[in-house]
Every structure is written in structure tokens, then in C-alpha cells.
Amino acid sequence: MFFRICTLIMIFIIGYRKAGFLMRKKALSQLKVIDLSWNIAGPYCTKLLADSGAEVIKVEQPKIGDPSRQEGPFPNDEKNLEASGLFMYLNNNKKSITVDIKSELGQKVIKELVKDADILVENFDPRVMPSLGLSYKILKEINPKLIMTSISNFGQTGEYVDHLATDLVAQAMSGWVTSIGEVGREPVRAGGNLNLLEYIAGTFAGMNTLASVLGRRKSGKGKHIDVSITETGNLQRSYPTVQDSFPTSPSKTDKRYTMLPSVEKCKDGYIGINLLTGKHWQDFCAMTEMYDWMEDERFTTINARLKNKVEFQERLDNWLMQHTREEIMAKGNEWKVPVIPVPTFKEMIEFPQYRDRNVFLTLDQPVAGKVIQPAAPFRMSKTPWEIYSYAPSLGEHNEEILGGELGLSVDEIKDMSEVAVI
Q: What's the confidence (pLDDT) of residue 242?
């Protein structure tokens, strides 16, 4: 009998661990976050908080959910709201409830949730929250300690406050596009369709949200954080901005971010090489046995190499095509030259360095099956980062949050569902 009870207890514990209800204390376990955001920037902000232990309640549209559920990729290319690769990555460790925040009853639900929340994150157009009666001015009356983080394309104020934007628009507005690409050719978008600025904006939003949490310890008051996706782009190219601010200094070259060499073809694939000047250049010449170029002013600086690109590239290509990636990597390590093979995804996840640090996780998601996702790029000794629950199914936690936390009855929840409020 004793062993049967022990077995049942272990099954209970293991089951709850898998469901994400039993976990070690985390760095942000004390924080409760209401997540009204969708797509990438806002959900990435709340992902950073959730992955460090914050309780994140994701509020989604009834029946439709976060638009990222529609994005994919999907297993076998079969569209499924519960199996979007993008949604699963951005929303692990969160709880999902469905609430129509355009409805009066839905707005009441949000206000009830706000009463004991620490943080609310949204990334709607700046006029949306005030139009719903959910502006910071109103919500702080309900909870003076609330920290509300708003992420938008151009910020909460300014002439472009109502303008629509995509990642390309934000990159163009922040100067990225005109800073990238080969001299004499058309400007280039950074990262293709990776939506880099949305992830960067989400990171800054998370950082400033936590800074406000620390500030609240002394002041006892919340605040409204205004994050502009476009302005985070400006910050990422701050050095070119400094360069451009000295009009008396004549430009030596078109201000495009172009390196030579960069990604180059070798005997059995591609390698990446980024060279600076001084000792970097001399070590590179020693590695490639181009000793006669060590002090040649036509090649010692980045700008000089660009001006003499044809001659440099011809000699480099000849050397590269005589060596494999492994050989070039070994020579780079010997001469302290920053060289790395350009891997396929399969090769990348097998890197010994990545395996040693568990950089990639394989999750067996209930609907999608096994998926590979990147882990955190940091390690915390006492409160380790981990995925402790899968991305939630749409409205999975309606009863737990609406019934258990807000005290709504089964009949009230049923009535709300019938009128599509949830």
C-alpha cells in the first residue's frame, strides 16, 4: 500500500511538471504580467519575462488568437492554430485566455486582471488602448503600482503616431537600409524577413520594464513605458550617427557597412572572416602567406581594401579555393584570425560548443511534435532559465484565470463564451 501511494504521488508530480504547474523558484516568480500584445515585439518582451519565471497571462482574441498563430511554419505545411512554430517559440511558459477587449464586458475583465498585476504589455497602435477605455491614465487609477509597457512603430507621440509600418519601414526610417550593402548598389534590408528590429525592440522593452520594477521598490508607483521600434533601430547604428555628426570630416568612402573579406567561398563551402586593421591584418597576411601585403597601404585598412577590391579578391579567392573550411578554421585558430565556417542549420545545432552549453532545446510539443528552439544566451547559477511549460493552446487557461483568480462562476464563463466575449 505504501509503495502504491508513493507511485501515485510520483505520477502526480511528473504529470504536473509536464503540464508546467510545478517548477523551481525563478528569478521573476513574484511578478504577474498581463500580456495584451501580439505578433513579435510585444510577445518577445513577455517571453523574456516568462522564461525567467514571471506569470504571464496572454490575452488573445476569441477563436482567432494571436495573429502569429496564423504565421507558421506548420508541421507538414498543414495550418493549425496550435502548431505554429513562430507562436510556440514566442509563447512558451505563458498562460492563454481569450477575451474580446473590444467588448464592454471584456474591458471589465482586463480591469479586474489589472488590479493585482505588476506589469501590462501591449503593442497596439497608440490610439487603441485609450479608445478601449484602457489607457494608462485609467488603469493606474485601478492599480497605482502598475507598470504599463507600450511598444509601437514610432512611439506614443509625434507626427507619425498614426502611420502604419513594417520591419522594412522601421529599418528605413532608422537608417539601417542606407547603411547596408555594397557601395554603388541599392541599399539592403538587414536580416531579410527576420524582423530583427521587432526582436530588438522587445528586448529593450523587457529591459526597461524590469528597470521600472526596480524603481518601483523605492517609489511605490508604476509608470508608462513608451518603446519605439524605429528608435531602437537608431540606437543600433549609433556609431554611424556619431560619424555623420562631424560634417567637417570629409567622408573617405560611402557610409555603407561593407566588410572585405566577409562571407567567402572556399574549397568545400563558405566561411566568414571579419578583419579590422593593425595586428588583425598582419595576422591574416601571415595565415594566408600574403607576406608582401602586410604593410601595403592599398590593403591595410577596410576602406583601402574596398577601393582595391578586385585585386584583393582575386588573390584571396585563389588561396581560399585551395583550402577546406576545416583547414581554414585551424589556421585561423593558429594565427588568432576571426574565422568561422558558415554552417547549415543541421551543422550548426551539432557544433560541439553549442552541445556543451545546451544552446538548442528539443521540445516535444503536444500538437506539433518535436521542435528545436534556441535556449537563453546566458546562465544563472541559482535561478536557471528553462522552458517549464509549452506554448498554451488558445484559451487553455480560461477557467483557471477567469474562474480561479477572478471568481467568475461556471455559468458566467459559459455565458461569456456564448456571446463570444471569450
A: 63
